[in-house]
Each structure stands twice: as C-alpha cells, then as structure tokens.
C-alpha cells in the first residue's frame, strides 16, 4: 500500500533546469527551448527555472523573465513552469514575482532570505509579503545549507494557512521536521535532494525537484512511476541504481550546476559554461560523469 498523496499543484517530476549559456557566457534562449522540450518529452511535467541549478545569483532580472517566456513558448501547457524569484531583499523579490507572472510562469520559487539571517518572524513576513503581491502560487525553498536560515517546521505550518503558499522544495535534511509538516498541513512537498526522492515520496511528498533530471529525466520519473504502480521493490532498485550518479553530480565537491553542465556538454546538449564565480569542471570530472551516465542509462 502506498502513502496518501498530497495535492500536486506543480506536477510530480520537476527538473531544476540549468540555464544554458553560449560559449561567451550570454543567455542561450534557443538552447533553453531545446533542453526544456527534451526534458518534458522524457518525463518531466514541471520545470524550475532560475533556481540554484539555474544560476539565479548571476543572471539578471531581464534574463530571468526572458527565460520564462522562451521556455513557455517551447513547452506550452505540457509542463508547469516555476520561476525562481528569491533574493535577499523582500522588495526585489516582490518585483521578481510580478515579472515572472507577466512572463508566463505558473508559480514562483521563493528561497529564504540569505546573508542577513532573519529570525523566524521576519522569515514568515517575507514569504507572506511575496505571496500577497502576486496571484501566482508559491513554492517555499528551504535550503539552510546555502541561506544560513531554516524555515522552521512551526513557521511552515503557519505559512501553510496562506491560500497561495502551496508547496515546499525541501533541502532541509530534516526528515523528522518534514514529516511533522506533512502530517499537519496540505503543503505539497518536493524532494530537492536527489538522494531523497523515493524516501520523501514514500511518506507523502508530491514529487521532486531534481538536478540530475537534467541528464536522466526518464530515470527519475521511473522511480516515481514504479512507486505509484505499487512496485516498491522496483522503485527502490531504481533509486539505488542512481546513487553513484547522484553522488558524482551532487556530492563530489562541485556544485550541481557545474557537474550538470559538464555532462550535458559531453552529451551535445545545451549547457555552455557556468558563470563566474563558478568555474567549469575539468576533463577528468566530465569523463567520470559520462561513464556513470552510460552505466545508468544502460541499466
């Protein structure tokens, strides 16, 4: 028997899509359209644009809006589009949310304000102001390893009362806290860490926002397909088979943006270099990723 499924306002298998650049570092909208079309054709029913993997800190407001519009043109209504709009400044985040709505996004991803380390009351006020400003539904982004501040479970429970705060991208590494919120709210949780895709789905999450799906969207979708079909053994087999690949992409000392772009470039898919301060992966890293990709795809 599978767990009761929470509502899925943004779909189930979401990819935290890279932002393709040209060889000289300019936004590659043609490449973005091509990559988005491939991801949707291979099992993604949602795309998160301009998130961590999408290099949001180094793309301009104008580039973010252009990216949403281009990807919407490419995928139409075949996938939901979630636009990353989070910044360290509440007023800026509100402006970004309104721009994403105008560009055609279906929802916004809003990260906890970083660097200033606001207390929980201020964290809640930030999210509520953004949710009040736009008609788009909000996915909270809980990633304290990058922001320095948790969205504490009690704060999540409070925020869940807002009609437009509907989902969470969970990178908290706090399974107990996640289950507490799942048990007490209708928030749709999405695993933001690829090693936790099946674990969170099994306790009622709505799906995942996957970085490795940039390269292996069908495999990530297959994990959730197997679980939905009641074949939990097969779901576990697929999750475990992906572990070496996930580890190489997400836990080998380089950001997922860097490893994803290195592999996609080797696969002749749109990627381009990351923007500084990130540096491209070396040849040895790219070779290793390609070998692991081949092994996982062959399995």
From TrEMBL:
EC supergroup of this enzyme: lyase
This protein's pathway: Amino-acid biosynthesis; L-lysine biosynthesis via DAP pathway; (S)-tetrahydrodipicolinate from L-aspartate: step 3/4
GO molecular function list: 4-hydroxy-tetrahydrodipicolinate synthase activity
List of residues binding pyruvate: 53, 209
Keyword tags: Amino-acid biosynthesis, Cytoplasm, Diaminopimelate biosynthesis, Lyase, Lysine biosynthesis, Schiff base
Swiss-Prot/TrEMBL GO biological process terms: diaminopimelate biosynthetic process; lysine biosynthetic process via diaminopimelate
InterPro entries reported in the protein's UniProt record: Aldolase_TIM, DapA, DapA-like, Schiff_base-form_aldolases_AS, Schiff_base-form_aldolases_CS
Quaternary structure and partners: Homotetramer; dimer of dimers.
Name of the molecule in the record: 4-hydroxy-tetrahydrodipicolinate synthase
Lineage: Bacteria, Bacillati, Actinomycetota, Actinomycetes, Kitasatosporales
Gene: dapA
């Amino acid at each position: 028997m599978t767990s009761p499924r929470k509502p899925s306002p943004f779909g189930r298998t979401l990819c935290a899509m890279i932002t393709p650049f040209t060889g000289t570092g300019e936004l590659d909208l043609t490449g973005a359209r091509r990559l988005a079309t491939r991801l949707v054709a291979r099992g993604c029913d949602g795309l998160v644009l301009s998130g961590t993997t999408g290099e949001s800190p180094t793309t301009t407001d104008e580039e973010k809006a252009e990216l949403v519009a281009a990807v919407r043109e490419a995928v139409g209504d075949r996938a939901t589009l979630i636009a990353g709009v989070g910044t360290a400044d509440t007023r800026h985040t509100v402006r970004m949310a309104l721009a994403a709505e105008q560009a055609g996004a279906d929802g916004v991803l809003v990260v906890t304000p970083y660097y200033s380390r606001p207390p929980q009351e201020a964290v809640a006020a930030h999210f509520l102001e953004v949710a009040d400003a736009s008609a788009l539904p909000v996915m909270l982004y809980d990633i304290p390893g990058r922001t320095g501040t948790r969205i504490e479970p009690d704060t999540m429970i409070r925020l869940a009362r807002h009609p437009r705060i509907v989902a969470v991208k969970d990178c908290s590494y706090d399974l107990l806290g996640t289950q507490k919120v799942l048990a007490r709210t209708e928030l749709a949780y999405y695993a933001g860490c690829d090693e936790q895709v099946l674990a969170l789905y099994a306790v009622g999450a709505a799906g995942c926002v996957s970085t490795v799906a940039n390269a292996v969207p069908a495999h990530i979708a297959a994990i959730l397909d197997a679980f939905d079909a009641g074949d939990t053994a097969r779901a576990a087999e697929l999750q475990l088979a992906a572990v070496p690949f996930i580890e190489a992409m997400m836990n080998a000392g380089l950001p997922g943006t860097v490893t994803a772009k290195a592999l996609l470039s080797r696969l002749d898919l749109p990627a381009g270099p990351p923007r500084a301060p990130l540096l491209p992966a070396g040849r040895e890293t790219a070779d290793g990723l390609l070998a692991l990709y081949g092994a996982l795809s062959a399995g």
